[in-house]
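Researcher: Here's a chain I'd like modeled. Treat it as a single chain, no partners, no ligands.
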Amino acid sequence: MPQDLLNKLFHSAWRSSWVKKDLKKLKIGLYHGLSHEIPIGIQKTGIRSVVTIHDLIHERHPEQYNSIDVKIYNKKFRYACAHADKVIAISEQTKKDIIEFYKTAEEKIVVCYQNCNPAFGKTVSEEGKRKVKELYGLPEQYFLYVGSVIERKNLLNICKAIFLLRNELNIPLVVIGDGGKYKEQVKDYIKQNGIENKVVFLSENSSAGSSSSFQSAVDFPAIYQSAIAMIYPSFFEGFGIPVLEALWSKLPVITSNVSCLPEAGGEGAYYVNPLSAEEIAAGMKRIYTDKQFAASMIEKGWQHAQNFTPHKSAESVMNVYKSVW
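Model: Modeled as a single isolated chain. Structure tokens:
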């Protein structure tokens, strides 16, 4: 982090270029841009560099960003991929996108998978889950959605699946996440189809709004572990951390058969066409009614989650460092 006042005031400029002066002063030999960016001209300093690219969603779905941001992201990401000594992609999908959009040499890109907060892998006691459910007024049984309420993440089709199941399953959906125009579109659908009592926007709950343990996600493992299944039929992701959080929580996952989501879910997820509310509904019904099937999903999901440990993530990144320095 910058130390002097000028660099603090112009933090973006410091990060994008001025930081080189501090790197040389501190005799830094290797710089890792953790989020899509390296300092301009770092390749001329003799300092080796690595950049992590999480996703190229702004390239695939520019309509989700304002046009100025798309231009800024394009310039920064493209420059980083061109001039870093190695590029870390967080999934095979992201690697493919880097090659497709920026024509980066395949041998320059290394896939290093992420891990999630280890708290999701720790079993919450029944008493702990009960307290969290009481605090937020959660239903006794519920399906779970976690993520921004934006079109790409596809909450509307989950709600359509809830509507399709209205006479078969009286199980609500709990939503953790917020949004703007698309959220209002989803809420309009919910109201028009009379399923207001089947969709709970937890982020609008007064207890959630005032709870530091909700805002910091401390209570999320208990919320996950109390659910029937995570439903995450996103159209496109860089990786899909909620899928991994659910697998570590021993929670069945319904997710999309596109993008990187089969990488995140492995054999432990139930895959659907994200365009099909019918397929989502079928998955929800099967996981709820077929306990043996749900149990097998949990076991397979837990085994797959072991590929995404903090140790494995750190080791893969360290191997990249060793390859350039």
